Amino acid sequence: MINILQLSVLLPLLWPHSSSLDTPLHCFDVEAGPSDYIVQSSGQIYRQSSAGQLLSEPVLLADLSDSGWHFSAHHKAVQSWLPVTVLGAQQHFEQLILLARDPSGQFDQLVIVRIFPQQKTVWQFADLQPHLSDDVVAGAVLPSQPDTVESLWQQVQQAPGWWRPLPGWAVQLPQLYAGMLYIASTSEQQTSSCPDYPLDLSVKVIHMHSGHKTKPEVEITVPHTGPLHWQLRVTPEQQISVWLEQDAQAWQLDAALQQITAECLDCYQTLDLSQWPQQIEVATFWYEEGAY
Q1: pTM of the prediction?
Q2: Cβ-proximal residues to 281 (8 Å cutoff; 6+ apart), any chain
Q3: In terms of C-beta density within 10 A (0-12 exposed, 13-18 middle, 19 or more buried), how is residue 286 classed?
Q4: CB-CB contact of 28 with 200 (8 Å)
Q5: C-alpha R_g of the chain
Q6: What are the residues whose beta carbons fall under 8 Å from the beta carbon of 118, sequence distance 6 or more?
């Protein structure tokens, strides 16, 4: 019997991924974790298991190959929901956080795909929406008529996902806190080689359901190669701040952690320590058959 670990090794051999510089995260350290999904370089997404229990055969959920982008096999899957939708009811789904590279422009794309329970439809790239414009959401630019911010938000709610271009290359998968995606990317585009250090990074904070920026981006300089780690710290005011660390060096990205709320597309609330879960994930247990 093939277990999930063996399948995770076998399927990339059957479906090879690109190993050249046109694949996101090629130049940076990444931590591989267990997943129910397989992402091919060409953009096909398969479910291989459910909560670690193998399916009889992989199920195709999305085919994003029409984008022409090269997708990283590394991805994240999170449980998510929209509290109020155009259908008048809550939507529960898994949200896949993906990175792809546009070979024509040599820059990365942040791609979000929603996977619904018992999904039968295979999503195509044309089903996804571009991210909502930062300026339109902030009211700095009026949307094209007859669209309004509200109607654009309704379109996003009905779509199975969205995508957003990034400047240069992403250096790691996004981190998700309280409904906001934190993603660090190089501030310059690379073409034929991995970037040199020290490396200038731009950290964006992005709404997980629409893709628009929720805060101004933060510029930092990383002195040398090596893994970057996210950390939450408690402030003297008993609020939570977001930091990015490398070895003994740390950069504060958010003085007070905020979460998205259901009142409007651009509504947030600041969280204090009493509102934040006090658990730390120490292990992930997958279904095993025949284990004692």
Answers
A1: 0.86
A2: none
A3: middle
A4: no
A5: 19
A6: none
Partnered with residue 163 across adjacent β-strands are: 111, 130
Nearest CA-CA partner of 97 in 230, 19, 208, 9: 208
Strands (E), the chain: 37-39, 44-50, 53-63, 70-71, 76-82, 91-102, 107-115, 123-124, 129-130, 161-165, 175-177, 180-186, 199-207, 218-222, 229-234, 240-246, 249-254, 258-260, 268-270
Model pLDDT, residue 219: 96
Residues of the chain under the 70 pLDDT cut: 1-21, 83-90, 144-146, 188-192, 278-292
Q: How high is the pLDDT of residue 3?
A: 47
The enclosing H or E element of 162 equals strand 161-165
Whether residue 222 contacts residue 228, with contact meaning beta carbons closer than 8 Å, is answered with yes
Contact assessment for residue 221 and residue 234, using Cβ atoms and an 8 Å cutoff: no
Token pair 């509290």 is at which residue? 83
**Pairing outcome for strands 70-71 and 91-102:** antiparallel
Distances from the Cα of 158 to the Cα of 42, 62, 154, 207, 230, angstroms: 25, 16, 6, 16, 32
